[in-house]
Amino acid sequence: MAVVGVGIDVMEIDRFATSLQRRPRLAERCFTRVEAEYCHSRAFPPQHFAARFAAKEAVGKALGIGMTRWREVEVIRGRGAPGIMLHGIYAQRAAALGVTQVLVSLTHGKTVAMATATAVDDPVPGDTALASVAS
Questions:
Q1: Selecting from 3.40.190.10, 3.40.50.300, 3.90.470.20, 3.40.50.2300, what CATH number does the domain 3-120 have?
Q2: Model confidence pTM above 0.85
Q3: Domain chopping of the chain, boundaries
């Protein structure tokens, strides 16, 4: 397994909560239905939205293209660790780079949420919790 790119992002939870309140359609524009349902099922949804937003930013950085189409990078629930499913231009960029998998780690405390993403060219053997590139 070789690392193709690495990304990291941090998001202030209160700031993201304010953005969600001011722009009611923000969650709809940035997150898939499944992502939004998961976040809304938690005790404090902004914390989980912020972590997923940071993950999407980190993935864009790992692929070297930034984020413009938020729903094309999807944080999915695996067995334990979350995974990433790429669609559209992000899947195309990953394929062009030879990326077969994006490893992601999310964390949050009371004030900030953070995520790292590592794009690799070979899947981790035996790891079924992580998703790969979709078209």
A1: 3.90.470.20
A2: yes
A3: 3-120
The answer to whether 19 and 70 are in contact (CB under 8 A) is no
Residue 129 has pLDDT above 50, yes or no: no
Q: Which pLDDT belongs to residue 55? A: 97
pLDDT of 52 above 80: yes
Using left for φ > 0, alpha for ψ between -120 and 50, and beta otherwise, residue 95 falls in alpha
Dmax over Cα atoms in the chain, in whole Å?
Answer: 44
pLDDT digit string, tens, across residues 64-114: 998 889 999 999 987 788 999 999 999 999 999 999 999 999 999 999 999
The tokens for 29 are 């524009």
Q: What is the 3-state secondary structure (H, E, C) of the chain?
A: CCEEEEEEEEEEHHHHHHHHHHCCCHHHHHCCHHHHHHHHCCCCHHHHHHHHHHHHHHHHHHHCCCCCCHHHEEEEECCCCEEEEECHHHHHHHHHHCCCEEEEEEEECCCEEEEEEEEECCCCCCCCCCCEECC
